[in-house]
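Forum > Structural Biology > Help requests

Title: Can anyone predict the 3D structure of Aminotransferase class V-fold PLP-dependent enzyme?

Hi all, first post here. I have the sequence for Aminotransferase class V-fold PLP-dependent enzyme but no way to get a structure on my laptop. I'd be grateful if someone could post the structure tokens.
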Amino acid sequence: MEQRQLTYKIASEPEEMEQIHKLNYETFVEEIPQHQQNEERRLIDKFDGENVYIIAKDAEEVIGMIALRVNRPFSLDQKLEGLDRYLPKGAKPCEVRLLSVKGKYRKSQVFYQLVNVLVGYCLESDFNLALISGTDRQIKLYKRIGFEPFGAMVGTAEALFQPMYLTKEKFETSTKAFSKTIPKDMRSKPINFLPGPVAVHKEVKEAFGKTSISHRSDDFIEEMKSVRRRLCELVNANHAQIVVGTGTLANDLVAAQMKKLPGKGLILANGEFGYRLIDHAARLGLQYETLQKPWNGNISLKEIEDFIAMNKEITWIWTVHCETSTGFLYDLDSLAALAKSYQLKLCVDACSSVGIVPVDLSGVYLASTVSGKGLGSYPGLAIVFHQEPVMPDGAIPRYLDLGQYAIADSVPYTHSSNLVFALHEALKRVALENKKLLGQSVKNILTRAGYPVLGDAAYSPGVLTVPLPDSISSKKLGDALKKKGMIISYESDYLLDRNWVQFALMGDIALPEFEAAFAVFERTIQRKAELV
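Reply #1:
Sure, ran it for you. Structure tokens for Aminotransferase class V-fold PLP-dependent enzyme below:
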């Protein structure tokens, strides 16, 4: 079978649910004769409305699934009397049902990865044990993953099932055994955990490789309109302008517009990129106050409101959404509500959040993002969202004048059709739920192995920051990993100064790639003498 990159997610789309019903039929009617046949060849589970479906997809095809249910009585309660007496003390169980993988994928890692995502989801939901009724045809496989049998077999002669459970500890043991099969390094295919440039999907690469076309052609203008429309739909914005440049340029464009606003602004800063906003404002001569905290310090909504209440001249707020230097994620919805209640203009640097977490800009005056981070494309396009129409202003340098782009459909000057083609393709692949699941799984793997990650569940799943002990040099570790084909974020001065490393999960990264990389990470750290 051709090796393709699979994705793992919680099913959310109608087409995914339809494929689940068909896979359910194929497995539990045609393969395991547990239910009656029907002409539609669809089997909708009796607990369908309560199930959470974790699925594996090959492109758009659902090729594996696990259904998770948390409400009791479980189906196993009805099959095995006194279920709780079989479970370990302190068990907080959920029930796993309908485990199924299409035939040609059964000798791959799909089943293992589905269980890996399942364990991460259970831990995040405060469950510590997963129950299954495992078909007697696959008991060896379940045991290899870490499931333990208990009680008597249940079911019928045609379809026998063994009650089993999986604990976090057992799964960790199987993970270590599994990691021994991973290649020692990845020189043939470097794995990229940078916040930019990010790993891009092969179809994004193909789109970038199309023959260039004139930025004045009708085809390009239509392509640009389509991309801008998709961007607006993604974040609930009225307008989006696309400029050849970086996130720094996008923030300068925002600052140039903010300079036209009356009164003074308030800039929030608790990390590298918040402090950079202060620098943007100073260079463009904006009038502003600051609310600053040490790196990774929490700036509460109450502190912001108290500051505004004491400074009546404040008319706008500027903040990052995700502070890339730490992963800290501001509560954008609450900030927007606060700004609305005080009739302030809220402006946001969303360079590291769009494409990673849900971003609603309906209450945001101006916002910036880029092509080469969470959107999963190549660097080189700066994006500015605005809710109100913008007109050109002769007092602003031409390239920083957002109005020049607004009246010219984002094409006042030379543009790159290749970058726009690539961004268009990448936008089709934005999957926020996948990013959330991946971030949860990666964080669980790191913390279970003893590597602390900054922040809590409210931090971005796209940037995981790991402080290293003084006995390990972040530079030497990063250099050593790079030689082995694993590229983590460590070379920025702000990371080197604090001896931090980061796993950025913004690009085209799947859980199996992280697991392969993590095995290399652990082996490298074990050679501490080389990393001091």
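The radius of gyration is 26 Å. The first strand starts at residue 7 and ends at 10.
Shout if anything looks off.
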